[in-house]
Amino acid sequence: MESRESKDKFAGRVRRAMGAPIVVVVLALTIGACGDDTVGGGGNGDVTTAKAGQVTGKLTISNWPGYIDPGSKGTVAEFEDETGVKVDYIEDVNENDAFFGKLQPQLEQGESGGRSIFVVTDWMAKQMYDLGYLQEINHDDLPTVFENILPNLESPGFDPERRFSVPWQSGMGGVWVDTSKAPEIRSVNDLFDPKYKGKVTMLGELQETVPLVMLAEGVDPSEADNDAWFKAIDKIKAAADSGQIRDFTGNEYTEDLTAGNIVAAIGWSGDASLIENKNAEWRMPSEGCTLWSDNMVIPVGAPNTAAALGWMDFVYDPKVAVDITEYVEYISPVEGVKDLLEKRGSELAESEIVFPTEEFTKDCTDQELPPDPEPVKEAWQEVITG
Amino acid sequence: MSLRQRLIPYWLLGPGLLWLIVFFVVPMYFMGELALRSGSLTTGYTFDWAWGNFPDSLSGHTEQIGRSFFYAGAATVLALLISYPLAYAIAFRAGRFKLLLLFAVIAPFFTTYLIRTIVWKTILSDDSPLVGVLQTLALVPQDGRVLATSGAVIAGLTYNFLPFMILPLYANLERLDSRLIEAAKDLYSSSSQAFLRVTLPLTMPGIVAGVLLTFIPAFGDYINAQLLGGPQQSMIGNVIQGLYLTQRDYPEAASLSFLMMALILAVVVVYIRFAGTGAFMGDEDERGTA
To answer: Are B257 and B31 in contact (CB under 8 A)?
Structure first.
């Protein structure tokens, strides 16, 4: 009897305790519903232009890992010495979507998280611009950039007049292979070979991995409809479910290649500096690669845009750009880098990965978005989170 | 009692209450509000009592919820099995090494959670000596691996939350009146009987507290699954993270978070009722009746 009573007492306490907060929450929600009630949906429509001026003060840059020499003799230090600007160089862009997801609430408030420059891939730059999160750039403020930029980068589809983006480096999505363990992998289709079960990874970025699989299937991503995207995603999902694909990664695939956890991965052409495995080699997939650029953009609310513009102009000096190329081994957007490398006697000048010819990239595709992206993104996320 | 005296308890409650309001009640309100919005990132999320978010957010994610229960449950049981003898040894047998051993339990916490987990990634990598030993002992198949398996995630969870199990157990065992065990033996109970009928019941509060402190954070954890698991080891925390950061479907992420909190709350309420509120509160009078 006593036990019964104490149970009732307990239940009564729970009911009383739960009741009050529920009433409060419902009331608060009703009141909240009357106020200004839209979150997101982009900025207020006024596009600002980044202000030029004296290059001084403090500058915060967000970039991908391994994309510059951050050492005491590296490019960042050189810029600091030359201009007196104090640079906070953060390598916190690991995937476009995750980086955007982290900063979106602040960007929505017109703040940039203290950063004056982000480096993001073409489609992400466009997405940010369309949402009103980026400032425009006046070409007159960037004389060195527009004197030295490679002609084929002057007018990309996502930003034909280069109003909000300046290329940082370009690269290719393809296949990294540990040649001591799986020398015969030359195609994205080879990654689905059961021989390598659990020993391959793919990139978690939809726009990178899925177009490569479509190319391998003989589908042109630039003309693919949503069904073609879903079909490629189904193929990847089946491989993930069976354990063929070990994981979907950002830059971490470089660690797995270093540690010997995997024999091959979908990865980026210039990541050699992040992989401590002398047998690792980037290969152009036999069906073609993805081609993209990562771009410097100036977000809304960026402090010290003058220093940001100063930085952009600085890295477009071929003498600076050649150091960056030597360190990162990606495709430089700056004219004249190849000549300087030849003068230095660097073998990179001969590399097809750093200076790809049109013949080399003839089967490659720009990173495309599906015609109706939302359902595709949702399906992709379900692949990644099992 | 003067008015001032009567107000003292409320003053003492003040800081804690303020903390709860600022860092729990207010965020909960905003999350609740977010959970009832609909729209997309480009059109904006508008508040329109979108209750449909709740069932929507569950669809397709039951597998990860089940997995989270399994992983967190397995980690909790493992942690209990490891912690109880350890806490017992520290409390009764460690002598002058007591403090040193307690320090050893907490020492890993001087390194941040993330780094500790990343280090396990190195320790468990496919070509590592440890995995080689496990393969030789046939605990792992010859061509098998540890990383990116359920085992690695459960091991990571167990390791990371172990001190949350050890410390309450130790605190409880330390207080245990050893004369009660002696009395049991005087009354002709064997050692194992004394343990089962005296020590174990008396340490129930420590076990209940340890289980809660381990299970609840382990259930919502996503770091271990992300770093030590693969796509087939995703837990519900990874799903919520993806919804927030990658898909930016904030309403669905918020409603899923709410449902998970409700689920955990329900599990905890049932568990405490089952284990006895008396045991949990350390109220010895009620234990016999609950």
So the answer is: yes
* C-alpha closest to that of A148 among A319, A25, A26, A21: A319
Q: Could you tell me if B63 lies within 8 Å of chain A, comparing CB atoms?
A: yes
**Which residues, in sequence order, are bridge partners of residue A176?**
A265, A282
Nearest CA in chain B to A376: B247
Distance from CA of B90 to the nearest CA of A (A): 36
Which tokens belong to A254?
A: 């470089």
**Cα maximum dimension of chain B:** 76
Distance from CA of B243 to the nearest CA of A (A): 8
Closest CA to A208 of A253, A242, A163: A253
**Does A378 sit within 8 Å of B247, measured CB to CB?**
yes
Q: How far apart are CA A84 and CA B79, in angstroms?
A: 54
**Nearest Cα residue in chain A from B29:** A25
* Candidates B45, B242, B246; nearest CB to A39: B45
The distance of B163 to chain A (nearest Cα, Å) reads: 29
Helix or strand run (H / E) with residue B92: helix B62-92
Neighbours of B74 (CB within 10 A): 18
Task: State the amino acid at position B27 in one-letter form.
Answer: P
Domain A58-164+298-316 has CATH 3.40.1190.10: no
Domain A172-291+364-384: top CATH class: alpha beta
Residue-level pLDDT at B288: 42
Q: Which is nearest to A53 in space by CA: A224, A306, A227, A247? A: A306
Residues of chain A with CATH 3.40.190.10: 58-164+298-316, 172-291+364-384
Partner-chain residue, chosen from A32, A40, A97, that has the shortest CB–CB distance to B246? A97
Write out pLDDT tens, residues B196-245: 999 999 999 999 999 999 999 999 999 999 999 999 999 999 999 999 98
Question: How many other CB atoms sit within 10 Å of the CB of residue A7?
Answer: 13
For residue range B153-195, list pLDDT tens digits in order: 999 999 999 999 999 999 999 999 989 999 999 999 999 999 9
Token pair recorded at residue A208: 């990178």
Residue at B47 is within a domain: no
Q: Kindly give, in sequence order, each residue whose CB lies less than 8 Å from that of residue B177, ignoring residues fewer than 6 positions away.
A: none
B63/A384 touch (CB, cutoff 8 Å), yes or no: no
A384 vs B231: CB contact, 8 Å cut-off? yes
Answer yes or no: do A386 and B63 touch at CB < 8 A: yes
DSSP A147-164: HHB-GGGSS-TTSTT-SS
Which strand (E) or helix (H) includes residue A40?
Answer: none
